[in-house]
Amino acid sequence: SASDPALVERARRAKAALGDRVFVLGHHYQRDEVIQFADVTGDSFKLAKEAAARPDAEYIVFCGVHFMAESADILTSSSQKVVLPDLAAGCSMADMATFDQVEECWEALEDAGIAGVTVPVTYMNSSADIKAFCGRNGGAVCTSSNARRALEWAFSRGEKVLFLPDQHLGRNTAVLEMGLSLDDCVVYNPHRPNGGLTTEQLENAKMILWKGHCSVHGRFSPECVDDVRARIPGVNVLVHPECRHEVVTKADHVGSTEYIIKKLEEAPAGSSWAVGTELNLVKRLGAMFPDKNVTFLDRTVCYCSTMNRIDLPHLVWALESLASGQVVNQITVDDDTAHWAGVALDRMLALP
Length: 352
Ligand code: 13P
Ligand code: SF4
Fold this sequence. Notes:
Cofactor: [4Fe-4S] cluster
Bound molecules: 1,3-dihydroxyacetonephosphate, iron/sulfur cluster
CATH architecture of the largest domain: 3-Layer(aba) Sandwich
Order of helices and strands: HEHEHEHEHEHEHEHEHEHEHEHEHEHH
CATH topology of the largest domain: Rossmann fold
Distance between the termini: 44 Å
Number of domains: 3
Pathway: Cofactor biosynthesis; NAD(+) biosynthesis; quinolinate from iminoaspartate: step 1/1
CATH superfamily of the largest domain: NadA-like
Shape: globular
Subcellular location: Cytoplasm
Radius of gyration: 20 Å
Strand content: 15-25%
Family: Belongs to the quinolinate synthase family. Type 3 subfamily.
Organism: Streptosporangium vulgare
């Protein structure tokens, strides 16, 4: 279907018929067949800001995953409608922290007498009710492009941080960017009583990391960094902070998808780059910068299957439905959740 000219033409026509009534956002991990129809592409942070900056668009079609569309619904006005072209486009990391599990964790922190000095910070990659939990309890949202500033903010308000749900982004930011030690971090496992931690461990920790991870980035190994360095002399290793700590410590550069693109833009012609992030983006980087040698850090890692759920047929269906007056796959967050999640998102947007 990718290059089906009939589908491309249908998408073009439906989008033209909608005109300014529709605004299409595309995350960098989306397929090329979809990204060609995005009015703006970006990392999670940029897309959240772009959604908030389009008050005149009646429909926001979000080509990305569910938690991004939820955040867009929270950040847009109540008359605007956010559409996710395939409702099955979730995120396995976001699913690793449920509201009940996080409430139970907070009770464990209360029992240990540390909830009062702990600030909850959630990665954007979480459901709206987890964001709302953070909003209600004095915490904030962060993305991979502002995690350090969010953690600095949190540590200015409390002694400890509960970081949800990506242990790797939390650990990499705390240890590699803020000078904390690995011993300052503990991992809370929601499937074990008390998170699998003793009260003493909770008392001594500065960073309480949720045991969650990205199923795509978690598969890059430190060995593949060694392999690529042996294979390509002078290669620059560039990875996303959702990669494991052992991988990130071996890399040359680490940052969000927007940062990864900027790094390649600035790179001299002829330079070599091994990129550890989702495959749609890495392939696109190769096509965007033919004068640079771009390789995928580990050929055994594959696409993000949920990002890939949004394909051209789903986009065509969503746009044609909207053009014919039918709103499909609308993502809505209830008022109370939206209010508190909005508080946590606004704290992120207000970071210096
Ligand atoms: P960023 O685009 O914010 O770097 O996020 C990556 C990601 O995994 C989104 O699912
Ligand atoms: Fe979730 Fe990872 Fe896919 Fe991003 S790449 S949507 S974090 S599973």
